[in-house]
Amino acid sequence: MSCIFQSGVRFSAYPDAGLASLLVRWIGCQRFIYNGKVGEDHLYAAQRRLLIKSGVTDPDALKTPLDQEYSRFKSRELSPWLYDVPSQVLRNGAYRWMCAKTRQLKGLAKAPTRRTRKNFNSVMLTNELFRFVRSNGEEVLEIGTEKNPVGLLGFKAHRPYDLPRTIVIRNEAGRWFVSFSYAHEGDRIVREPHEVAYEINGLDDDVLDAATIGLDRNVRDNCFTDSTGRQHKIEQVNLDRIARREKGARRYQRRMSRTKEHSANRRKVAQKIARRKNYAQRVRKDFTHKTTHGLVVSETRLFVLEGLRIKGMTRKPKAKRDPVTGKWLRNGARAKAALSKKILASCWGELDRQLQYKATWHNKLAVKVPAAYSSQECSRCGHTHPGNRDGARFACQRCGLEAHADWNAARVIKARGIRALRKGVYDAPKTRKRVAFRRKDLETGGSPGASDTPEEMSVEQTLDRLAA
Ligand SMILES: [Zn+2]
């Protein structure tokens, strides 16, 4: 049995000014259709809830239609601009929503939400809207329908590529990229995580120990330490560059405050800021890709991470109010914002995400274990006490083990992962129960989804969690 794999390549693209402004419009129109479908989905969900409330028990009575139709969002009066773009661009917007909705129905993702310019900055084109042509001896993309081409898009292919059926053109902080995506049959078989867990669980203790790596994430120094004692860190030269660009961004931010609203100048300055901020993102992504690649191609078969709830840790604290006087009290929001920034800058979530999918790809397993007290526990004798820890040093009060605190924590996490594996925590596939509505929302009228968001932590709690 073979699997269908999705893969792709991404190249820098160089549209001229005319094509760039056209592509920006296409992106906007595709987003408009996508958001239209999202809104419609919300409407159906609200009606379903009303039906259930009035006693209709069949939750499928008002299903959101899973289709690519978009004509109802097109109106000469309200959205005349949609008539200027090729219909395939709009249909692909509906198609992108359909894919997102399908993922939700399969239990792979949350419901599709409204997107903005920030998180929907690309346009997907199917092969009616592009073809490869030669211009000045180079292969370039001709964008538009065959009858009505709109421009040539040059790109820099830094590796060989096949002819794609769909392409995605993306604008990131003023830079353009084109990605070619492929779905092809692979010759290798990718197994389910619980099958991999079963297989690894069959290993002898010492073999499993050698094939397991625990990873500890250190926010203070912005690095990862694995249980072999190796530190993974963004290179200093890149950190210096990030700092320099942040400084530059602050300078342009001040300049932007003096520009006139909606002026061309303001747009230019905004782009300069975006570029500078984008640099840090690119460095971090590059770092996580290199780190996770290095990990999955090694001999290791089990990766153990600490399960931290990044969302709750970095959420803004709720406003506090004095119950008697009604005055607003300090809630530590600023202190927490600084910490949140550091947590997010350490690319935790991204490392986790990439390690998960890359491990699956290589038939390896990446798991998460509870992180509580991992830095106070001795990796040799298991003695857990706050006194064991002194800054970056770890010294066990019972058995006298002395080590770097991160290395000790990584070993504790590794041991926890092995214990959980032996206990069979990762064995059985989780069965997901689909719930048509949430009882709590019905009673309180609260916003749907509020109940399943992670709880918010105070600065102290977050620090505790980190120190633990
Ligand atoms: Zn000890």
UniProtKB/TrEMBL annotation:
Keywords: DNA recombination, DNA-binding, Metal-binding, Transposition, Zinc. This is Transposase. It comes from Paraburkholderia franconis. In the C-terminal section; belongs to the transposase 35 family. Residues 248-272, 437-468 are annotated as: Disordered. InterPro entries: Cas12f1-like_TNB, Transposase, Transposase_put_HTH. Residues 209-315 form the Probable transposase IS891/IS1136/IS1341 domain. The keyword Metal-binding applies. Residues 7-35 form the Transposase putative helix-turn-helix domain. Residues 348-413 form the Cas12f1-like TNB domain.
